[in-house]
Amino acid sequence: MLTPTLSVQHLRTHFFTDAGVAKAVDDVSFDVRPGEIVGLVGESGSGKSITGFSILGLIDAPGRIVGGRMLFKGTDLTQLTPEALRQLRGNRIAMIFQDPMMTLNPVLRIDTQMIEAVRAHANVSRAAARERARHALTAVGIPSPDERLSVYPHQLSGGMRQRVAIAIAMLHEPELIIADEPTTALDVTIQAQILAEMQKLRARSNTAMVWVSHDLAVVAGLADRICVMYAGRVVETGDSDTILTRARHPYTIGLLGSVPENVRRGEPLHQIPGIAPSALKLPAGCAFAPRCRHATDICLTQEPTVQGSETHAFRCFHPRTVHPHNPRAGAQA
To answer: The ABC transporter domain covers which part of the protein (predicted)?
Structure first.
């Protein structure tokens, strides 16, 4: 088995506020191997994006990584100096943000930003850097790349800015890409094109990816493995086929049941009752228990431990063996 490009081990990222300690990420572990795409899926506030920001050392006060390790090619990222992290970011590790203006400087032309991004980590001429930038824009489906290089970010549409941000992340063909819902602002045609380019990059450069998304349809068609997050924890993990067809955790099954493709025409969408708990006031026991129709007394008082196997693990006292909306999909193997 390949050595992981990234190994996140018992990561804890907490925010220390006047209202209390918000446990945004609490004991999260997963591996990403070369050429593998791992999807982080869950509702807003589940800790997906904070996990990605933690990997790159982008947590600002009052947030702080309070525990765990993140090994990139054997190097613990939590032990690196700010300068060492800067040398990794954009070069060997890249991040694609949901908001492209977190990547783009509004007062600099696109060519200036992309050329500087290339030359910050590669000893090449401006002409060679510009050609690499032009090629990257073409790869993400931007028409007339020479014209687009000469404009400012505000002269582009939101979707076009996002494609530029993705192109910047791909400039150095990094060993690891953290993608924080990068296709949310794109229409389905461009989204499909971007996903295809990501697959090509993975095949060409053996790039590992962590793909953060709330969209199960996108993750299902892209990721090799899926980690389902809830209230700062991974509640179920396994290869994509296992998660999509043989899910065991009630929360995962609830997410699958709320996807329109999984509901017969004319039937209402299945909903998970209630709302996700605040990271400031997590309930005792299982965080999902107040919303789970299978919860018992033990769920309300004790935190479930990890069950299952190395290939399919879940945190639940009462894992389901039959999918409530499709008995054949959830049958126990």
So the answer is: 6-256
Judged by DSSP in three states, 82 sits in: helix
Q: Is 7 within a domain?
A: yes
Burial class (CB in 10 A: 0-12, 13-18, 19+), 305: exposed
pLDDT tens digit string along 269-282?
Answer: 778 889 999 999 99
| CATH assignment of the domain containing 217 | 3.40.50.300
Parallel/antiparallel/unpaired status of strands 306-308 and 312-315: antiparallel
Q: Going by DSSP bridges, is the β-strand pair 208-213/37-41 parallel, antiparallel, or unpaired?
A: parallel
Q: Return the sign of the alpha-carbon dihedral for residues 34, 200, 91, 59.
A: negative
Q: Which helix (H) or strand (E) holds 195?
A: helix 188-205
DSSP 3: P
Nearest Cα neighbor of 33 from 58, 75, 3 is 3
Range of the domain at 43: 1-85+213-333
Number of structural domains (the chain) is: 1
Q: What is the pLDDT of residues 96-110, one digit of tens each?
A: 988 888 889 999 999
Q: What is the pTM of this model?
A: 0.89
DSSP H helical ranges for 6-89: 48-55, 82-88
Report yes or no: 118 and 124 within 8 Å, Cβ to Cβ: yes
> What is the per-residue pLDDT across 279-326, written as a single tens digit (0 to 9) for each?
999 999 999 999 999 999 999 999 999 999 989 999 999 998 655 444
CA distances from 187 to 99, 109, 150, 219 (A): 15, 25, 24, 16
